[in-house]
Fold this protein.
Amino acid sequence: MWILYKDNKILIDKLDEKSPEEGLEDIVNRVLQSARNNYFYRLKLFVYYNGKKIPKQGYNVNSPELKDLDAGSWWSSEFKGERIPTLEETLDTVKEHGTAETTLILEMKTLDTGSIRKICSGLSQRSLLSKTVGIGLIHQSVDVRRRFYEGDSDFQCATVANSADELSLAISDPYSSWIYTRYPMNLNEVQAVHDSGKKIIASGPGVMDDIEGMVASACAGADTIMSYYPNALAQRLGN
């Protein structure tokens, strides 16, 4: 039996009662389609075998069941047949196709045993440490940033500034080389960050969901912009 969770809430708990013509992939896609605005990677899949839940460390994305899932159709028919990539597959793709100075923004949702070593090693082997910035748990916790720094001092951590009031504290953070700003910044604020030797990921409401906010952030000097509309932004910026 498969149990599909989202934010610790059971979405499906009796897949053995599915209709004969409906497979696991059909059910998962149906649920995901109904929650279209939630990204697939934010879902947690737990596997039960003979009534016993397999511990978190007891399954991985290489298992045939997960690798066979269609992880794209819930978003759009254009992505039908896309599979869930492993960390190694993701890093290989970034290495092969990445062209920007900052190629990968890595968002940590969990911090499992050995994950820091695995991430730092994978990035180092592909010469991606200087092209990657860590956010998620990383920008939320100075202790996590410290642990990444101890894992590899070349790993680039971001801290966060949710508002202008938090910017000074973010600039003074000892374990970050980037600031993940979640508000529209002005020229003076951007200059203050750059003067401190740090770089800026522009994001948050009024930026990543608003084309004018993105353009304003770019004009102010943000080093990287997280965008819901990257193609439209590139067109506006003439890239």
